[in-house]
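Database export, one record per block. Field names are fixed; values are copied verbatim from the stored entry.
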Amino acid sequence: MDIDGDFLLAVGCIRNHGHILQSVQVEVFEHGAGADVEVDVIRRRAGKISRRELDDLRRFLKNPAEYYYRNVLKVCFNDLSDVALEDQEVLSPETLGKHNILDTILTAQLGGRGLASVRPELGARGLAPLAAPGDVYVRDCWTKTESFLSARMDGPLPNTDIRALCARLREAKPLRVEVEIGGRLVCGSLGVTVLEGRPVWARCRLWPIKTRDLVSAWPAHLLLCAAGHPTHTLVVGGETTPDIRYFEPIANREEALRELGKLNDLFRQGHSDVLPFAPETSFDYASQVSELGRQQPPPDGEAIQAAALSAAVRRWTGSKYVRGETADPYLFRAFGDQGPTALSGFGDTAMAVYGPMLAALKEC
């Protein structure tokens, strides 16, 4: 339970008005005795509206099981499966190191720095391989980054290249937005800019787009639209070829508020127990349902569910070439070898998180 100033004010109100406590107990019992629900009820009875930061919701949606263990139970698990041995010299960096190299080069190019000033920095930070192999690798990353930034975007910004988008985003001042959902303010700060006469918020990085990038952008998009700032939200990624996906503005604020409220409800549920949900496994289930549902004529419901479950199980177990989500220490401790696919509510939760997002998502 989070103890902060708002909560202490609410407790003081209850002590002075004994009748409030009884109604609080009844409502907590009706909703389930989760700490997050209890604090919300106490605050509401005290006439005090609390806040939930957008970043909390986004972290939760990336991996609800990890969020539950780390933020509710205060338990952390270490995953060392991708960490290279300290005394092992490699000619090509592992995944995290490669991401850091590309991010450093991207920032350097946007800031007008040259390759000669970046190579020593990467070596000093231990990111790039040593000597000639490192020089070749960094030079290749530099060339890829130049090509990425100079690529033009189709879709909502056909006359803008990625360099111009990133430059405008770096200059954008954070826009503070908030909406009230269920007696709590959901709020966040987002750097919105204007390009080609359109308000734009974007996530941009030189890396293949992952599920977590999309599910992080979606609640931000909903919050902006629900707060009366209908915005084009872009997710820009890729390595050799830019990959651009986007959400168009939602003009109906009530629609955006309703979808954001559904995600907020899942956030509250995820404080009482682990949701039957694994990010990639659930995404493959929802993607299969959405894809098959668009076929003409669509398969029957049982065939769609069977195909979606099969795709989810494959993603959970993985293969010789693709690591399954069983390797995630939080998901494995939550669901064991069998995973979440056999649990009640798995399909419904997957569609609640990803269904509306996939329906709104467009690609250039």
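Remark 1: The CA atoms of residues 101 and 125 lie 10 Å apart.
Remark 2: Confidence is low (pLDDT under 50) at residues 1-46, 80-91.
End of record.
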